[in-house]
Known about the structure:
The protein has helices spanning 3-16, 18-30, 39-51, 107-124, 147-155, 164-170, 232-244, 287-308, 329-342, 368-374, 399-431, 441-450, and strands at residues 57-60, 64-70, 77-83, 87-88, 101-102, 133-139, 179-187, 193-195, 207-216, 257-264, 275-284, 311-320, 348-350, 377-386, 395-396. The chain is of the alpha/beta class.
Amino acid sequence: MDKFTLKKKLLDAVEARAEDIIAAGEWIWRNPEVGFKEFKTAEYTAGIFRDLGLEAEEKIGLTGVQTRIVGRDERPNIAVIGELDALLIPEHPEADPDTGAVHSCGHNCMMANMIGVAMALVDSGVMEHLDGSVTCMAVPSEEPIEIEWRREQHRDGKLFFLGGKQEFIKGGYFDDVDITLSNHMATNTEWKITVSGGEEPTPGGVGFMGKAITFKGAEAHSGAAPWNGVNALNAANIAMSAIDAQRDTFKDSDAVRVHYFITKGGDAVNIVPSEVRMEMMIRAASVDAIKDASMKVDRALKGGAMALGAEAIIENIPGYLPSPAQGSPALWRCMRDNALETFDADEIVIGTDDPSPIKVPHGAVSDINDVANIMPKASFRVGGAVGVGHSRSYTIEDKYNAYVNPTKLYVGMILDLLWDDSKLAREVIDEYRPQVTKTGYMDHWKDILEG
Ligand SMILES: [Zn+2]
């Protein structure tokens, strides 16, 4: 069978499954669960894999699920990512009334796209003509929320990272993956898909590290004898001012953002606050910039504590890596060419939809960057959601584009990559230079956290 006929067969298989793919996306929308607690969604996904006659490997990084569809070879192995987790926005009209969870970031769409890939590959039988395999991954927790709860899991040895893809890397689940494909929803109905131009990456995302800080002072009667106390809230206050005083030492090109909030400000109004706790994120476009900002922040925290005779206990928390400087032009061209085959030219944006002439790194973070640091990765953005992302107004309007079209783009790319002795996949793998090796990944994080 020739490549053109095979691709048509594969795209027809997606079309034939359109209703099932939309139904899966809608089921997940109606059953939102936050990171590392996606038990129902994981079970639902494993059930679909099994119904397709595939094996489902479960409970990876607490709630992750994956299946591998093998062609004429085990390798190259292409991973297609779906993210299991929702957000916490109790104000959303469709939020889970018990937990407040809702898919206001559209991860339910990515899940449907990934499930659609499994359906189309199995239904069409194309894998017997392809030289490699495809792993469909349902990965927990992309959103770094509920940090205190996750730190408890960390202390109990159940989790190391805040992100699910990182737990997959740590567990070795990316060791035999060669290329990763992913996407993300955008609140846009003007265009259907945004892909890289093929040569230049679209501006990447920043990375971050977290900090949990405890200021320890001494309690005393606030009216009768405040001089007997050590005011931990005042120490935190001076530390926050000292952090602000560092801000003009951060280079614009590093896109540093330091933000925090106080999770505990004391115990009672008539007692000198003896314990104050803060949570913090330090974002930046490079690992060096994260480390530099972290060093300055630590100095400010200790300075605030020293001024009052208090103590600052700083716990560094692994965040996500910044997107790598280099990428995979051959893979991006494959994505662009398939987008041009799947959509009308006026439905897609090639390059970036950001009209501003100054391209700055995106301030949002994602653990997909950690994957992009260790292997070739292509991501595209999908239109079809409306409202404000991460808010009560978010909803999926263009269901066909959100749920079905990305599946077509994925399967087209898979066919191109694994066709003819997986020539293109091998070119992509040969061209790629990792920022961090898979074996050095944990040491890289250790180095960041130790400063
Ligand atoms: Zn998201």
